[in-house]
Amino acid sequence: MADQYNLVSEPAAGPSAGGGRWAPARSARRAGPPRDAVIAVTGHCNAHCVMCDIWKHRQADELRPEHMRRLPPELASVNLSGGEPFLRGDLPQFVQEARSRCARAVITISTNGYLSQRIADTMERIVDIDPGVRLAVSLDGLGSVHDRVRGDGGAFDSVIRLLDLLQGRGCRGVRLSMTLSQVNADQVLGVAELARSRGLELGIVAAHRCRTHMRLENGVAGQPTEAPRRSFQTLVARWLRSWNPRQWLRAHFAANTYRYLARIPQALVCRAGRDFFFLQADGTVYACGVNGRVMGNLVEQEWEEVWNSPAAGSARSAAERCGGNCWIVCTVRSWYRRHAWSVAAWVAGQKLLSHLRLLRLPAPPAEEADDTRSAGAEAPASPASAVNLPIEAPRADPSH
Ligand code: SF4
Ligand code: SF4
Predict the structure, then answer these.
(1) pLDDT tens per residue, range 26-37
(2) Is the pLDDT of residue 257 over 60?
(3) 4 lines ligand 2 (CB under 6 A)
(4) Cβ(188) to ligand 2 under 6 A?
(5) SS3 state of residue 374
(6) Which atom of ligand 1 is nearest to the CA of 179?
(7) DSSP class of 287
(8) Can you list the alpha helix ranges (DSSP code H) found in 23-154?
């Protein structure tokens, strides 16, 4: 699933997003325990998404539930992903093992929602194991737009059927996750309205060129060529005007998702391979799921061996130099933990502007249109100078 790159999996408390700058780590070889893990329990998928090539490849699923016993127990979040994780009949056992091993971790399962009945039934078993488990359901547009993103007719109807089943059974912890691609850049507000009407939280992330996880090799597959600024502006302002701190955090994430899409550079030193890692279905541990270096293999090695290996040290060093500026849930969580006050200051300032109908997102670098109208209106673009996002001046090219 694409949505493990989405804050729908929950922020712990975003990059250049608060005005701070990540400090390079002193030693690449050694690192403390990571906090966040994305685990592809399967490399198989029943969807054919435009922004992902997993479905074009066949790979063996070497991971078994008992391999979860090798995870670092300090993890604060575990995202069970795929492919489509519900294709695995032993998904509840994965949850069981992860729950036992990582007592403090919030477990989130990502799904494309195709197998509505099976997902709803399996979730009943999973909730018995861990009542706090979260389910992130991908929804990338309304009706035929979602179907086009997924590459299959009927995908949207499956998601709606799944939501009906889950909500009808009182399943809590369900939320929506939207990945913005070339196909659905105009769907932000429509999906947000659907989420609101169902009382569900929504996370929005830009399609990234995920070589490691999604097997993308060529180009920035599916990433919109134009950032939908007005839609983001409206949504960010709306979320900031709420009195729900979680919505404020989502507003911050969305504002910086827009910046990523608009190619407004941000200066980050990535902590992939330190604060987070990606575990592939064949057991390979990568520093990240986007373009991460190999650190080891959890099917063949114990955790300490992987985490303290020379390969892990090289992967950390490469991440520090990467400059990819990925705006995904892992990098954002990591940044939030270190810059909570910057985020709080951003929220305070932008919330005030939102209530005054003065919030503006920056124009992409080449855009020179003007705008003096409110964020709530479908307004023309505003000048970058009107922006108050406390994000550092452009320093690097986010080349994803
Ligand atoms: S993005 Fe998710 S649902 Fe779509 S093909 Fe990739 S793994 Fe499957
Ligand atoms: S910035 Fe580089 S190392 Fe960090 S998540 Fe993105 S591709 Fe991975």
Answers:
(1) 566 678 999 999
(2) yes
(3) no
(4) no
(5) coil
(6) 1
(7) S
(8) 91-101, 116-129, 144-150
